[in-house]
Amino acid sequence: MYSLMMILGILILDRITKYMAVEHLHKIDTFPIMEGVLHLTYAENTGAAFSILTGRQNLLIVVTGMVIVVMCYFFWREKKHMSAFANIAMSMVIGGAIGNWIDRIMFDYVIDFIDFRLIDFAIFNVADSFIVVGAVLLGYTIIFDKASA
Question: Does the annotation mark 112 as catalytic?
Answer without folding.
Answer: yes
